[in-house]
Amino acid sequence: MQISPLALVTGANGHLGNNIVRELLRQHIPVRAGVRNLRNHAPFAGLNCERVALDILNPKQLQAAMRGVDTVYAVAAAFKFWAKNPQKEIYDVNMAGTWLLLEAAAAAGVRRVVYVSSTAALNYSCLPTTEACGYNTDRRNVYYNSKNDSDEMAMQLAASLGLELVSILPATMIGGENFALNESYQILANIYQGKMPIDPNIYLNWVDVKDVAQAAVAASSRGRAGERYVLAQEKGTSMRETLELLNRLFPEQHLKVPPRPPRPLLRGIAWFMETSSRLAGKAPLLQTSLVDMLWGLRRDYDISKARYELGFAPRCVEQSVREAILYLRQHPALLAAG
Fold first, then answer.
1. 30, 46, 79, 116: most buried by Cβ count inside 10 Å?
2. What is the 8-class DSSP label of residue 128?
């Protein structure tokens, strides 16, 4: 019996990382799960995989985790839109983590890296946007800049190291197994619980994390080295449309559509929230940079490349949202933590 090559997943206790682990195991691929905290057992209950301590900023841990690995799923990153020191806590982490991981992978003789980027690293000057449109030219948000620049650097560094790298760019992931709500899933949970006091006129693109995980695994064999693949719905969904969908699916919530302030007023509200957050040390509900960048911007994508080359077939928005909310209802502690 032939044994499948070993796969390493960084950030394996996170939303996407844990669902990639589960998809690999479903396909009978041996998994080494890299996590920062080995004492966090919950995401791996019932999963037959090796776990190792792995901080992507720790070269020794990276070297140890790469031994004997065929494919690395580079998922771990700073996924947050706000921090007390965004340059240090978001941008520098994502750039340095990418550099160190690729150096370690090349030194260990890894065959391929499936690099998890983001639709934040796409150019929205043409819609529907696609991989061919290039990188994001809007530099007003540190998280967006970090994903944009780390994706571009990863492509260039991998080529110089002779390392096969495929970049996947997921949209707003929801659903699947989840043990702590990330920023994307938290937005949906807030809308469902009626915690959005205003409509910021920002479009999201809800995609099921299980569909992204399947495409990520497909990228290890079917993706072309040096290429990027958008993993999203073809059409974005506004907050108002999301509320209307939730009211159809869960009418007992009686969700009301909040008012949509004019853009200048919304920016003033975001400024006030940011100022308060700096004092409280807690992420604001809105940021001025995101209002400036995303007000009325549709999140529409041409996903034909991922469809044809990776077999990416995302379930519809209605199914994705329904399954995501049902999961949250089955895990009320996640909703309560929001």
1. 116
2. S
Helix/strand/coil for 113 = strand
Task: Sketch the domain layout of the chain as residue ranges.
Answer: 6-184+206-234+301-325
Number of H helices, E strands in the chain: 13, 11
What gap in Å lies between CA 122 and CA 162, rounded to an integer? 25
- Helix, strand, or coil (residue 135): coil
CATH class of 6-184+206-234+301-325: alpha beta
What is the residue type of 110? V
The answer to whether the CB of 100 falls within 8 A of the CB of 59 is: yes
CB 161 within 8 A of CB 113: no
Sorted by sequence, the CB contacts under 8 Å of residue 26 that are 6+ apart come out as none
Please give the structure tokens belonging to residue 272. 């006030």
With beta carbons less than 8 A apart as the criterion, state whether 87 and 142 touch: yes
Residues 21-74 have pLDDT tens digits of 999 999 999 999 999 999 989 999 999 999 999 999 999 999 999 999 999 999
Instruction: Provide the CA 299 distance to its chain's centre, in angstroms.
Output: 15
Q: Residue 60 carries which side chain, given as an amino acid letter?
A: K
Using a 10 angstrom Cβ sphere, with 0-12 exposed, 13-18 middle and 19 or more buried, the burial of residue 199 is middle
Cα–Cα separations (whole angstroms), residue 327 to 101, 152, 174, 321? 33, 35, 10, 10
Distance of CA 55 to the CA centre of its chain: 18
